[in-house]
Fold this sequence. Notes:
Elements: H1 8-48, H2 57-76
Amino acid sequence: IILLDDNFASIVVAAKWGRNVFDSIQKFLQFQLTVNISILTLNVICAVIDIKCPLTVLHLLWLNLIMDSAASVALASEPPTDELLLRPPTNRTDSIITKQ
């Protein structure tokens, strides 16, 4: 983040947007992991019980394309809130994927 002035309000806004970006990345990863693990589970179950999988390779590619673009647009358009500044800062060594 590059600040163009020495105004403290700019620093507060930059911190708010930085935390919003971090939260959006966390939500996007959670969404993607949920969708992809569900698809993987479906494919593994179909392979184990030896039935034809309902999703072909082309279906999987389209599903990933649509889910990636829809989720990224939805999460990128989420504006930051003032509640983001009430929590403590995130440590650099903390994992982006949490158990919450």
